[in-house]
User: What shape does this take?
Amino acid sequence: MNRVLGSIESGGKGPLIACVAGLHGNEQVGIEAFNRVFNKLQDHKIDFKGSLLGLAGNKKAIALNQRSIDYDLNRSWTKEKFEALKANHGLALAEDNELIELKHCLDDFFMAENPLKILIDLHATSSENGNFIVIPEDEFTHPVVKSLHQPVVVNLDRYVSGTMLSYYHKQEIVSFAFEGGLIGSPEALQLHEAGIWEILKAAGAIEAHDQPWEDHYREVLKGFNDGFPHSVKVYYRHPVEEQEDFKMKPGYANFQGINKGDHLADTIYGPLYSPMDGMIFLPLYQKEGSDGFFIVREV
Assistant: This one.
């Protein structure tokens, strides 16, 4: 597949908006969602202000429908990693070229002078109720983020290092992860498609959606957040060690209330119990991944 899913350069004043989908190769619903939006923009000749770029993340992992091959492409966006890749011209690991190519595309796109630059990292989760926004705490009230009407996790970047959103946030680009829900679900596709339309509208890139009678995306987004907290902070993370044979107990969903002492998971070292009251977040129900679960509280 091509790295570039689609692009628009209007030449006029407007935001720079980049969407990356499939940074984890088994989370592919964002690719289809972007393609749907992009095709409707083209087919209906919707007036677009600014520039839009859609990128496939980890192409090699996407082809195999797995999260990663040699390492997690969303834990590698650090100065040290790029210096190491520059020094090692061999680029021996599968994700090495993926990381370099993706960074090159984004750096070139965001090089243009513009007061509003937005990076959307489209993801899905291995557990239910996986629709939320991850953004650094100083930007969680941004109008574009608020337009999505989803729960906001405001400090996950302090617990997970080397993410793409953290890297570009430091460059004064409005950067956030948009988690659409359960991997491969039709609800995740619906949520991502509706969310991209609302982002384009809130950023001032478009004034209407695909057709006037289909201007219902705000209601779609609001329908996914019933009973969810408005915003949460992370207070605990369980890192998964490769040798511990981590197994999450079945039945846990994002933002589900838990109490101190609840049995959450099992490892070869014994059961894992919740160290505090709160809500479970990102319980791991797939073989790949270095985060077993988080515990969050509403703020």
User: Anything to note?
Assistant: The longest helix spans residues 186-202. The chain has eight helices and 14 strands. The mean pLDDT is 93.
